[in-house]
């Protein structure tokens, strides 16, 4: 039977409606849509999709079960490798991972693996709430304690696997809420916080103990944890320190890092004013500098916070933008203005020290740099000004140095990322690390993959095999 060339479309909120609310944009598949999309999978013998998934979900098997209407089996298959499918199904950059080499692409769209995973993930949450789907079984409880620093995707995935192996797992989180970027960075309209909470709840039910408002390096050091009887430590503290462009005027009022802006809106719920009285500027002409997912989240948030004009300033072209295609499309549909081949050279303030203009310069693309991306080169004499009343900088992040500064012998590179060996062990024995703190800013699923790999190594280490 010939398969449909196009993916089953997921219904979404209309752009004119959604720019006025923080509700999730896509509605998710119905069962009928999910079964129909799963019938597009060719069930390849050598499944390249699995190789593209950093946690190696048996994708053809779960899609087959779904196609046959066996949701319980599909859920079990996914949960073997990933306890967070409702999260990853929503935020994984599938086009660069599992869907990248999907054979169906030769005939049309790739199979919507992420959309199907999201469907199964949501089904699991629904069924667990009714007591119809179990919490993963823990065969044998062990006495050894393992400490996890940070409750982002890396820490959560590591905690999940260690809990399944029976360890006493303690997660220490510096913020007052769990989830890392899933909670403080990615906005509600892309990843509802209720979904993050539900998937974390599973870990709590498995016996993982969470401590919030507990920054390691301040409350306790890693050495204190060992003195307290922990057998191993996993650092999953992310890369949450913002970078700035280093140009004149960047300390003016009304200029935020994306990190601070999104944290105020998401974690501290500034969008729920007056229920939450979090101070934040609601700019009318907002410019976001950058072209990644963080920039798209910031600009779309600014629009929902009341901006009349919200724009992206990016020094390359649409083609080179690192943001997910879906996020760019959503931003375009919502009326975000894109200024490509443009870079800021200085910010201009008014008499009260608030930003009022950005001086920009046009760029052109030169030869590819070491990453293979064409290097932007300023076009001399092309400077121009843009009127703004708020600027959000989203040009990348680096790790917070608090842990490396308080852990003697912990080696980091010149960017502050922690060095690990092939088993994810750092230069300090018994201390492992993974996620953005090792790779620099990356993706949710690569952080989860790293957390899982570290859990395996921690198990070997505690058993004396490493
Ligand atoms: C706005 C935004 C949007 C993004 N969108 C996507 C997307 O759509 N898809 C995607 O795949 N990726 C996306 N990413 C990237 C992705 O979220 C990260 O790569 C991923 O979260 C990294 O996981 P992590 O566990 O290493 O770190 P984090 O998620 O940063 O979690 C680290 C946690 O450690 C805590 N911590 C730090 N220091 C300490 C300490 N000393 N003691 C205790 N706790 C500490 C932090 O508070 C934080 O909660 C996005 C990132 C941002 C910022
Ligand atoms: S976890 Fe992410 S990469 Fe893996 S199959 Fe799911 S959507 Fe694809």
Give keywords.
single chain, FAD/NAD(P)-binding domain, binds flavin-adenine dinucleotide, alpha/beta, 3 domains, 466 residues, 33% helix, Fumarate Reductase Iron-sulfur Protein, Chain B, domain 2, binds iron/sulfur cluster, 5-stranded parallel beta sheet, 16 strands
At the fourth level of CATH, the homologous superfamily of the largest domain is FAD/NAD(P)-binding domain
List of distinct ligands in this structure: flavin-adenine dinucleotide, iron/sulfur cluster
Total helical segments: 17
Tell me roughly what share of residues is in helical segments. Answer: 25-40%
Remind me, CATH topology of the largest domain? FAD/NAD(P)-binding domain
What's the N-to-C terminus distance? 51 Å
Quick one: biggest sheet?
Answer: 5 strands, parallel
Number of strand segments? 16
Spatial strand arrangement across the major sheet: 3-2-1-4-16
CATH architecture of the largest domain, by name, is 3-Layer(bba) Sandwich
SS class: alpha/beta
In percent terms, what proportion of residues is strand? 15-25%
Low-pLDDT sequence parts: none
Overall pLDDT confidence: 95
